[in-house]
Amino acid sequence: MANKKYAAIDGPIPGENLISDERNYPWRRAPDYTDLDEAMEFLLDTISEKPKLFAVFNALENEITVAQFSQTIVMSAMAQGRFTLDFALLLAGPLAKYISILAEGYDVDYDMGVETEYMYFPKELIDASQLDFELQQEMERTPEDEEEDVNEEAREGLMNAMKDESMDVASEEEQDSMLGYNEGEDEELV
Hints:
The chain is mainly alpha-helical. The protein folds into 2 domains: 22-105, no CATH class; 119-167, no CATH class. Helix content is 57%, strand content 0%. It is built from 10 helices and no strands. The radius of gyration is 37 Å and the shape is flat. The mean pLDDT is 78.
């Protein structure tokens, strides 16, 4: 058994990641663009070239949404180290709008990929529904609910009840004796 040769383990050496050169990855270096306008100009220049522009239109005609396409472009530029994730989030919207403007200019049908149909409720309808809700609540009231309103003053709590001057409040000596203070203990503390 001593003569048996072991196969070399093909894997990283423990601690190899601590001495590896991290500059090999674009996202670990400083981004190429630190100005938002310059980053947007870079994206617009890359899309506006004729072969890439027609590739964009081809993708839009094949039911890729503008939102998906702009996200793909922004994320690939971020992976290349062009700009940071924060810039990618800020650039996605204007890039999608630019793509939609180009598509309209070339009469290409496209889908933005976001819901644009919003339900509009007129103020009068909202006010009427609120009034209807209040009337329904009033009709559903039972005699027990009215008793609860009467007893609400009793449930206000001890501190509010003490505001009533007709209630007897213990003197300071009584309060001290309730708390366990004796006259001898007070003298020792002083």
